[in-house]
Amino acid sequence: MARFSAATVTADQIVSELEKTGYCIVEGILSSDEATATRDELRAILNGGPTGRNAFEGYKTKRMYGLFAKTRRFDRLATMPMMLEVIERVLGSAFFNLSAPTGIDIGPNERPQIPHRDDGKYPLPIPHQEVIMNTMWALDDFTEHNGATLVWPGSQIRGDSKDVNFTPKETHTSVLTPDRSAENRQQRTAHAAPQPGGQGFESGYAAVQKAIVDADVKPIKATMSKGSVMIYKGSLLHGGGMNTTTQPRMGVILEYCAGWLRPQENHLLAVPREIAAAVSPKLQELLGYNMVPPFIGYQDGRHPREILKPYAAKL
Fold first, then answer.
1. What pTM does this model have?
2. 167 pLDDT higher than 60
3. For residues 69 and 185, which has the higher predicted lDDT (pLDDT)?
4. What is the SS3 string spanning the chain?
5. Confidence at residue 155, expressed as pLDDT on a 0 to 100 scale
6. Span 143-153, mean pLDDT?
Protein backbone atom coordinates (compact mmCIF):
# COMPACT_ATOMS: atom_id res chain seq x y z
CA MET A 1 0.00 0.00 0.00
CA ALA A 2 1.72 3.17 -1.19
CA ARG A 3 1.64 6.03 1.29
CA PHE A 4 2.97 9.51 0.70
CA SER A 5 3.39 12.58 2.87
CA ALA A 6 1.42 15.67 1.90
CA ALA A 7 4.58 17.70 2.55
CA THR A 8 6.66 15.95 -0.13
CA VAL A 9 4.37 14.06 -2.54
CA THR A 10 4.35 14.97 -6.23
CA ALA A 11 1.74 14.48 -8.91
CA ASP A 12 4.17 12.20 -10.74
CA GLN A 13 4.34 9.84 -7.74
CA ILE A 14 0.56 9.69 -7.43
CA VAL A 15 -0.05 9.08 -11.13
CA SER A 16 2.62 6.37 -11.22
CA GLU A 17 1.03 4.53 -8.31
CA LEU A 18 -2.45 4.86 -9.79
CA GLU A 19 -1.20 3.17 -12.94
CA LYS A 20 0.27 0.27 -10.94
CA THR A 21 -2.28 -0.46 -8.22
CA GLY A 22 -5.19 1.91 -8.90
CA TYR A 23 -4.93 3.83 -5.64
CA CYS A 24 -2.63 5.47 -3.09
CA ILE A 25 -2.87 7.34 0.21
CA VAL A 26 -1.57 10.84 0.95
CA GLU A 27 -1.22 11.49 4.66
CA GLY A 28 -1.44 14.74 6.57
CA ILE A 29 -3.30 17.02 4.15
CA LEU A 30 -5.62 18.09 6.97
CA SER A 31 -4.45 18.58 10.52
CA SER A 32 -6.09 16.40 13.15
CA ASP A 33 -7.92 19.44 14.53
CA GLU A 34 -9.19 20.48 11.10
CA ALA A 35 -10.37 16.95 10.34
CA THR A 36 -12.17 16.77 13.68
CA ALA A 37 -13.86 20.16 13.20
CA THR A 38 -14.99 19.15 9.71
CA ARG A 39 -16.32 15.81 10.96
CA ASP A 40 -18.22 17.48 13.80
CA GLU A 41 -19.81 19.99 11.41
CA LEU A 42 -20.97 17.24 9.07
CA ARG A 43 -22.29 15.10 11.92
CA ALA A 44 -24.29 18.05 13.24
CA ILE A 45 -25.95 18.34 9.81
CA LEU A 46 -26.58 14.59 9.65
CA ASN A 47 -27.88 14.40 13.22
CA GLY A 48 -31.37 12.95 13.26
CA GLY A 49 -31.28 12.16 9.57
CA PRO A 50 -32.11 8.79 8.02
CA THR A 51 -29.80 5.87 7.43
CA GLY A 52 -29.42 4.16 4.07
CA ARG A 53 -32.34 2.84 2.06
CA ASN A 54 -30.64 -0.35 0.87
CA ALA A 55 -27.56 -2.48 1.46
CA PHE A 56 -25.50 -0.47 -1.03
CA GLU A 57 -26.04 2.79 0.89
CA GLY A 58 -25.86 0.86 4.16
CA TYR A 59 -28.77 0.41 6.54
CA LYS A 60 -26.60 1.66 9.41
CA THR A 61 -24.82 4.35 7.40
CA LYS A 62 -25.76 8.02 7.06
CA ARG A 63 -24.97 9.84 3.83
CA MET A 64 -24.81 13.55 3.10
CA TYR A 65 -25.69 14.41 -0.47
CA GLY A 66 -25.69 17.96 -1.85
CA LEU A 67 -22.43 18.52 0.01
CA PHE A 68 -21.55 21.91 -1.48
CA ALA A 69 -24.97 23.29 -0.63
CA LYS A 70 -24.42 22.51 3.04
CA THR A 71 -20.80 23.21 3.96
CA ARG A 72 -17.80 25.22 2.79
CA ARG A 73 -15.34 22.80 4.37
CA PHE A 74 -14.47 21.10 1.08
CA ASP A 75 -14.21 24.09 -1.26
CA ARG A 76 -10.42 24.21 -0.90
CA LEU A 77 -9.93 20.46 -0.98
CA ALA A 78 -12.02 20.01 -4.13
CA THR A 79 -9.86 22.54 -5.99
CA MET A 80 -6.35 21.66 -4.75
CA PRO A 81 -4.02 22.30 -7.72
CA MET A 82 -2.02 19.08 -7.35
CA MET A 83 -5.20 17.00 -7.05
CA LEU A 84 -6.64 18.63 -10.16
CA GLU A 85 -3.39 17.96 -12.03
CA VAL A 86 -3.59 14.26 -11.14
CA ILE A 87 -7.22 14.06 -12.25
CA GLU A 88 -6.46 15.82 -15.54
CA ARG A 89 -3.61 13.45 -16.28
CA VAL A 90 -5.57 10.30 -15.48
CA LEU A 91 -8.74 11.37 -17.32
CA GLY A 92 -6.73 12.78 -20.19
CA SER A 93 -8.54 16.10 -20.26
CA ALA A 94 -8.60 19.44 -18.45
CA PHE A 95 -12.40 19.41 -18.63
CA PHE A 96 -14.06 17.46 -15.81
CA ASN A 97 -16.75 17.91 -13.17
CA LEU A 98 -17.48 16.91 -9.64
CA SER A 99 -19.73 13.86 -9.85
CA ALA A 100 -20.75 12.50 -6.45
CA PRO A 101 -19.43 14.45 -3.45
CA THR A 102 -20.87 12.59 -0.47
CA GLY A 103 -20.34 12.44 3.29
CA ILE A 104 -20.42 8.82 4.48
CA ASP A 105 -20.76 8.03 8.19
CA ILE A 106 -20.56 4.24 8.56
CA GLY A 107 -22.35 3.27 11.76
CA PRO A 108 -21.59 0.55 14.31
CA ASN A 109 -22.37 -3.01 13.16
CA GLU A 110 -22.56 -1.97 9.51
CA ARG A 111 -21.99 -4.73 6.97
CA PRO A 112 -19.35 -4.49 4.25
CA GLN A 113 -20.59 -2.82 1.10
CA ILE A 114 -21.02 -4.75 -2.12
CA PRO A 115 -17.71 -4.45 -4.02
CA HIS A 116 -18.12 -2.23 -7.05
CA ARG A 117 -16.41 0.07 -9.51
CA ASP A 118 -17.46 3.72 -9.58
CA ASP A 119 -17.51 3.75 -13.37
CA GLY A 120 -19.79 0.68 -13.40
CA LYS A 121 -22.88 2.89 -13.41
CA TYR A 122 -22.17 3.95 -16.99
CA PRO A 123 -22.94 1.63 -19.95
CA LEU A 124 -19.42 1.72 -21.36
CA PRO A 125 -17.59 -1.16 -23.04
CA ILE A 126 -14.65 -2.77 -21.27
CA PRO A 127 -11.92 -1.76 -21.64
CA HIS A 128 -12.53 2.00 -21.88
CA GLN A 129 -10.66 5.17 -21.08
CA GLU A 130 -10.75 6.31 -17.47
CA VAL A 131 -13.84 8.46 -16.94
CA ILE A 132 -13.97 8.63 -13.11
CA MET A 133 -11.43 9.66 -10.48
CA ASN A 134 -12.25 9.53 -6.80
CA THR A 135 -10.88 10.72 -3.48
CA MET A 136 -11.86 9.51 -0.02
CA TRP A 137 -11.11 11.98 2.77
CA ALA A 138 -10.73 10.47 6.24
CA LEU A 139 -12.33 12.58 8.99
CA ASP A 140 -11.88 9.75 11.51
CA ASP A 141 -9.05 7.26 11.66
CA PHE A 142 -9.85 4.47 9.19
CA THR A 143 -8.94 1.25 11.01
CA GLU A 144 -9.08 -2.50 10.47
CA HIS A 145 -12.29 -2.62 12.50
CA ASN A 146 -14.34 0.55 11.85
CA GLY A 147 -15.04 0.34 8.13
CA ALA A 148 -11.80 1.21 6.33
CA THR A 149 -12.42 0.97 2.60
CA LEU A 150 -11.69 -2.41 1.04
CA VAL A 151 -9.70 -2.16 -2.20
CA TRP A 152 -8.58 -4.77 -4.71
CA PRO A 153 -5.11 -3.59 -5.86
CA GLY A 154 -4.59 -3.91 -9.59
CA SER A 155 -8.28 -4.48 -10.35
CA GLN A 156 -8.31 -1.23 -12.35
CA ILE A 157 -6.32 -2.92 -15.12
CA ARG A 158 -8.73 -3.41 -18.00
CA GLY A 159 -8.49 -6.23 -20.50
CA ASP A 160 -6.42 -8.47 -18.21
CA SER A 161 -7.61 -12.08 -18.42
CA LYS A 162 -7.76 -12.20 -14.62
CA ASP A 163 -9.74 -8.99 -14.37
CA VAL A 164 -13.40 -9.76 -13.79
CA ASN A 165 -16.31 -7.33 -13.75
CA PHE A 166 -17.51 -8.03 -10.23
CA THR A 167 -20.32 -5.46 -10.19
CA PRO A 168 -23.69 -7.25 -10.34
CA LYS A 169 -26.78 -5.65 -11.85
CA GLU A 170 -28.35 -5.66 -8.40
CA THR A 171 -25.83 -3.05 -7.24
CA HIS A 172 -27.22 -0.36 -9.53
CA THR A 173 -30.89 -1.37 -9.65
CA SER A 174 -33.17 0.93 -7.65
CA VAL A 175 -30.25 2.08 -5.52
CA LEU A 176 -32.02 5.29 -4.56
CA THR A 177 -35.55 3.90 -4.44
CA PRO A 178 -36.90 3.14 -0.96
CA ASP A 179 -38.26 -0.40 -0.70
CA ARG A 180 -40.96 -0.57 1.94
CA SER A 181 -41.89 -4.17 1.23
CA ALA A 182 -42.11 -6.83 3.92
CA GLU A 183 -38.98 -8.43 2.50
CA ASN A 184 -37.08 -5.15 2.87
CA ARG A 185 -38.21 -4.80 6.48
CA GLN A 186 -36.98 -8.35 7.08
CA GLN A 187 -33.63 -7.37 5.59
CA ARG A 188 -33.34 -4.43 7.95
CA THR A 189 -34.03 -6.71 10.91
CA ALA A 190 -31.58 -9.36 9.77
CA HIS A 191 -29.01 -6.65 9.11
CA ALA A 192 -28.19 -6.35 12.82
CA ALA A 193 -25.82 -9.33 12.65
CA PRO A 194 -22.95 -8.37 10.33
CA GLN A 195 -22.42 -11.75 8.68
CA PRO A 196 -21.92 -11.59 4.90
CA GLY A 197 -24.32 -13.93 3.14
CA GLY A 198 -26.60 -14.13 6.17
CA GLN A 199 -30.39 -14.21 6.03
CA GLY A 200 -31.88 -11.14 4.40
CA PHE A 201 -28.64 -9.93 2.82
CA GLU A 202 -28.82 -9.13 -0.90
CA SER A 203 -28.09 -12.10 -3.15
CA GLY A 204 -25.81 -9.84 -5.17
CA TYR A 205 -23.26 -9.77 -2.36
CA ALA A 206 -22.88 -13.54 -2.33
CA ALA A 207 -22.54 -13.58 -6.11
CA VAL A 208 -19.84 -10.92 -6.01
CA GLN A 209 -17.93 -12.70 -3.25
CA LYS A 210 -17.98 -15.94 -5.23
CA ALA A 211 -16.65 -14.18 -8.32
CA ILE A 212 -13.84 -12.65 -6.25
CA VAL A 213 -12.89 -16.01 -4.74
CA ASP A 214 -13.00 -17.69 -8.15
CA ALA A 215 -10.70 -15.00 -9.56
CA ASP A 216 -8.30 -15.32 -6.61
CA VAL A 217 -8.25 -11.57 -6.05
CA LYS A 218 -7.54 -10.52 -2.47
CA PRO A 219 -8.71 -7.20 -0.97
CA ILE A 220 -6.82 -5.11 1.53
CA LYS A 221 -8.14 -2.61 4.06
CA ALA A 222 -7.09 0.94 3.23
CA THR A 223 -6.38 2.08 6.77
CA MET A 224 -5.33 5.70 7.22
CA SER A 225 -5.22 8.39 9.86
CA LYS A 226 -7.77 11.19 9.92
CA GLY A 227 -6.72 14.06 7.73
CA SER A 228 -5.47 11.69 5.03
CA VAL A 229 -6.94 11.07 1.59
CA MET A 230 -7.11 7.96 -0.55
CA ILE A 231 -6.95 8.71 -4.28
CA TYR A 232 -8.24 5.99 -6.59
CA LYS A 233 -9.40 5.32 -10.12
CA GLY A 234 -13.07 4.85 -10.90
CA SER A 235 -12.22 1.47 -12.40
CA LEU A 236 -10.77 0.16 -9.12
CA LEU A 237 -12.85 -2.48 -7.35
CA HIS A 238 -13.61 -1.33 -3.83
CA GLY A 239 -16.31 -1.10 -1.15
CA GLY A 240 -16.95 0.24 2.32
CA GLY A 241 -15.68 -2.05 5.05
CA MET A 242 -17.50 -3.64 7.97
CA ASN A 243 -17.68 -1.55 11.15
CA THR A 244 -17.48 -3.85 14.16
CA THR A 245 -16.82 -1.05 16.65
CA THR A 246 -19.23 0.97 18.78
CA GLN A 247 -18.47 4.28 17.02
CA PRO A 248 -19.30 5.61 13.53
CA ARG A 249 -16.58 6.24 10.93
CA MET A 250 -16.83 9.45 8.88
CA GLY A 251 -15.33 9.92 5.44
CA VAL A 252 -16.14 12.14 2.46
CA ILE A 253 -15.79 11.19 -1.17
CA LEU A 254 -15.11 13.85 -3.78
CA GLU A 255 -15.67 12.04 -7.06
CA TYR A 256 -14.84 13.60 -10.43
CA CYS A 257 -16.00 12.58 -13.90
CA ALA A 258 -15.06 13.44 -17.47
CA GLY A 259 -16.63 16.70 -18.61
CA TRP A 260 -18.68 15.07 -21.36
CA LEU A 261 -20.19 12.53 -18.95
CA ARG A 262 -23.30 13.22 -16.88
CA PRO A 263 -22.34 13.58 -13.18
CA GLN A 264 -23.97 11.27 -10.67
CA GLU A 265 -25.48 14.20 -8.75
CA ASN A 266 -27.12 17.16 -10.47
CA HIS A 267 -25.26 20.02 -8.79
CA LEU A 268 -27.09 22.69 -10.79
CA LEU A 269 -30.20 21.67 -8.84
CA ALA A 270 -28.57 20.53 -5.60
CA VAL A 271 -26.58 23.73 -4.99
CA PRO A 272 -28.68 26.93 -4.97
CA ARG A 273 -27.46 29.57 -7.42
CA GLU A 274 -26.89 32.15 -4.72
CA ILE A 275 -24.43 29.72 -3.10
CA ALA A 276 -22.80 28.78 -6.41
CA ALA A 277 -22.30 32.47 -7.22
CA ALA A 278 -20.28 32.94 -4.03
CA VAL A 279 -17.75 30.13 -4.49
CA SER A 280 -14.54 30.33 -6.51
CA PRO A 281 -14.66 30.27 -10.32
CA LYS A 282 -12.86 26.91 -10.33
CA LEU A 283 -15.41 25.34 -8.00
CA GLN A 284 -18.19 26.82 -10.13
CA GLU A 285 -16.67 25.01 -13.11
CA LEU A 286 -16.51 21.74 -11.20
CA LEU A 287 -20.17 22.12 -10.21
CA GLY A 288 -21.16 22.25 -13.87
CA TYR A 289 -20.91 25.93 -14.78
CA ASN A 290 -18.50 25.11 -17.57
CA MET A 291 -18.25 24.13 -21.20
CA VAL A 292 -16.36 21.32 -22.91
CA PRO A 293 -15.02 22.44 -26.29
CA PRO A 294 -16.35 23.03 -28.79
CA PHE A 295 -19.81 23.68 -27.33
CA ILE A 296 -20.96 21.04 -24.84
CA GLY A 297 -22.77 22.58 -21.89
CA TYR A 298 -23.95 25.99 -23.06
CA GLN A 299 -27.21 27.54 -21.84
CA ASP A 300 -29.26 29.68 -24.21
CA GLY A 301 -26.20 29.95 -26.46
CA ARG A 302 -24.02 31.41 -23.69
CA HIS A 303 -21.46 30.18 -21.19
CA PRO A 304 -23.43 28.77 -18.21
CA ARG A 305 -21.54 30.96 -15.74
CA GLU A 306 -23.39 33.97 -17.19
CA ILE A 307 -26.50 32.81 -15.37
CA LEU A 308 -24.75 33.37 -12.03
CA LYS A 309 -23.95 37.07 -12.64
CA PRO A 310 -27.24 38.46 -11.23
CA TYR A 311 -26.69 36.42 -8.06
CA ALA A 312 -23.06 37.51 -7.76
CA ALA A 313 -24.11 41.16 -8.08
CA LYS A 314 -26.15 40.80 -4.88
CA LEU A 315 -23.24 39.51 -2.80
1. 0.85
2. no
3. 69
4. CCEEECCCCCHHHHHHHHHHCCEEEEECCCCHHHHHHHHHHHHHHHCCCCCCCCCCCCCCEEEECCHHHHCCCCHHHHCCHHHHHHHHHHHCCCCEEECCCEEEEECCCECCCCCECHHHHCCCCCCCCCCEEEEEEECCCECCCECCCEECCCCCCCCCCCCCCCCCHHHHCCCCCCCCCHHHHHHHHHCCCCCCCCCCCCHHHHHHHHHHHHHCCCCEECCECCCCEEEEECCCCEECCCECCCCCEEEEEEEEEECCCCCCCCHHHHCCHHHHCCCCHHHHHHCCCCCECCCECCECCECHHHHHHHHHCCC
5. 87
6. 96
